[in-house]
Amino acid sequence: MRLKDCHNFHDFRRLAEKRLPGPIFNYIDGAADDETTYQRNTDAFDGCDLVPNVLAGVKDVDMSVTVMGQKLAMPIYCSPTALQRLFHHDGELAVAAAAEKFGTMFGVSSLGTVSLAEVRKKHSNPQCYQFYFHKDRGLNKAMMQSAKEAGVEVMMLTVDSITGGNRERDLRTGFSIPFRLSLKGMAQFALKPMWGINYVTHEKFALPQLDDHVDMSAGALSIGRYFTEMLDPSMTWDDVAKMVQEWDGQFCLKGVMSVADAKRAVDIGCTGIVLSNHGGRQLDGSRAPFDQLAEIVDAVGDRIDVIMDSGVQRGTHVLKALSLGAKAVGGGRFYLYPLAAAGQAGVERALGLMRSEIERDMRLMGCKSVSELNRDNLRFRT
Description:
alpha/beta
């Protein structure tokens, strides 16, 4: 299989699986516990049908949206994810370049492998920073200041990860940073020598958002231990309110799932919320964001930008979310598999296919612009 043979999410996933060592593929592909929420995130869209209108004279389609003050040429963005240079040696730089080409937003994680400043120097499209709240308040302040100085437009505080999810696939392979692999995991790397060659012949792997502040070299600090030992499970709404004031700009909470929490986000001055269960990677058995979208939009959608991620694989998924009132949607695996498969070219192909799907589906729906999408063109099956 080659990149030109990839036509959808599942094709990219298969190509990524062929090219990545097993432990790294399973880090992207896996989720928490029995992975039921991971599956449910996408299945949730299947209970909702689109009802198109015909003869609408759709000559041109405008799929642009404005979310948290950022104008996007398409209503899906590349949600920030960790460790991207493990999947392809260009990592976040490849994603940023592809997102810029398609006029959409991308994100860099606290566990990102390229610095916020480096990405901003090379690319001017909207950038969000997925921030984790550490026990060290001084560290939090320093990292926020670095983001502000780099020119990041949107602070995106992740609030569903005060401890690590039980990702059993990683436990079986021994996946960690630095690598401390099981024998089975090491054998998987031996089967994919090209990945290893690329890994050792390109820039040394690093976590630049943390390198200046945290000693990541002592022992096997797994991703789970990073969450458990360094992040602050006692984080409260008062802590976040102070961050919102300090940032003094577009501030978004990622991982909101209840109406009550959405209302509190409004009260403390957030400009956006992302309905998300972390792609099923944290609390298995939690509700799918799409299933929560309507009631949260009804509660706060006139006062704050409501976004959703988790489970988005198709243009029709995007249209269903927009019809319920989401201002935009985020995707993670939808571009991570293409990144792993072919770097920037893979991400560009994924974004191009998604843009084509959204444009074609809007024509078939009889909608000239995103603003014409509404609940009248949806029906839910019981």
